Amino acid sequence: MDERAPSEAVIEIENLVAHYGDRQILNGVSLTVEKGEIMVIMGGSGSGKSTLLRHLLGLKKPTSGSIRLLGKDITKISKKEIYQLRRDMGVAFQGGALFGSMTVGENVQLPLREHTKLDEKTMQIMARMKLEVMNLAGFEDLMPSELSGGMVKRAALARAVIMDPKLLFFDEPSAGLDPVVSAELDELILRLRNAMNMTIVVVTHELESAFKIADRITMLDLGNILITDTVENVRNSDIERVQNMLNRRPREVDVDTEAYLRRLTGQKH
Amino acid sequence: MHLRAFVDNIGRRTLNGIAELGYASLLFVECVYWLGAGKFRSQPVRLAAIFRETMNIGVRAIPIASMLCFAVGVMLAIQGIETLKTYGAESKVVIGIALSVTREFSPLIVSILVAGRSGSAIAARIGTMLESQEVDALRVIGINPVRYLAAPLFLGMVIAVPTLTILGDLMGILGGAVYSALELKISLSVYIDQTLASLTVDDIQQGLIKSLVFAVIIVVVGLSNGFQVRGGAEGVGHATTRSVVLSISFIVLADMIFTYLLNR
What we know:
heterodimer, A: Rossmann fold, B: about 260 residues
């Protein structure tokens, strides 16, 4: 395989079907993410975007379908191979998910501590370097509870990229942040891609942020992909549901009077 | 119709119970597995973490455990002397205290204390970490949560509870000795001589075996409730309460069964 081939897929999802309990959340989703691109997965609440992310991270087993990350099908490979693969993956969770019992610095160092045999000093320096990139220099001795929302996200991002992963996943970077901080975070994501040439998958429902950072956008709705295309093409799409999402129009609910009456009266059938 | 719902309910609860028992057993096996095989899979259970947990569960509980066991010793002396007075055999209270403290009360009181103090904390901590996606974060970093969070707690508990039980034995006997010294004018050295003469290795061992079983109950119940938290802060609160109630109930039941088995 040629590393510099322009169309090298690092994430290939094929026909992914997923259930939560008895409910089907994803109805055969297929998606490909190229090396070095920023793919934004969008969708409203209940669209299945969080479920899709959990499957991409290997936190859930799909009902059927395959997910290939860096050429390895994570639904089939052994635990040991997944463990190896995790070195090349970084994840920044929505709420940061920093460990409350450790300082910011220890949080950032944790992946190094677990995956490498570097000495203490080197790990500290590496953690400081990443925190510096995230504009968090000097905060390594604070506890996560002492940080603001934006700082927590940046610290989580520092932890996610400490191993210089090939793949970075970011769940709802703008959630709970004010517009300025959120814009700074978008800048940071772009800088990271340019500096480290990572492939980045961002899950968000924030339109502005999506348009700013994305190379391509995938829009999910009720467990189906509506569109996967460049920012320009998504904007100009003539699919009604896509335009609804872009223009913040409420969904039209099909009214089935019979079913409505049955629900009201509590009849099952 | 009601009967059907009733039977349905019983069936469902039984299934849930079995599922939970299965989950708890799996956790137990996994903890032991990681403690033994972790270092061969480049995921060792860190000594520092084990020390930290042992410190929290054991060392920090020393003052309160000593106080409670001392009080139980005093209480046994009061009741014992009162009862034995009827037969004019007050001095036999020494044997009674020695046996009941080492075989029964020390492991029981220590375990109930630890269940309330640390069992609940385990459930709350794991549950909160689960809710704030910290457990997911561990998994995506490539750290097995059972190995990283559960195994050190498991070993810490298994070390701390029997150790506290030995301390409890001493404090309980001391409590009995102090009260007897005041009430029956038995000197401390005579009391201790008599205690040592009446105790056998088997008595101490019985208490320690029990305390080991209780330790496993506390940690496994706490962990499995913590790892099964659903529904935010309320879920965490529920799991915490549940783990305390369940572990104390299981401790008392297990105590009964073991007392029966060990005395046959």
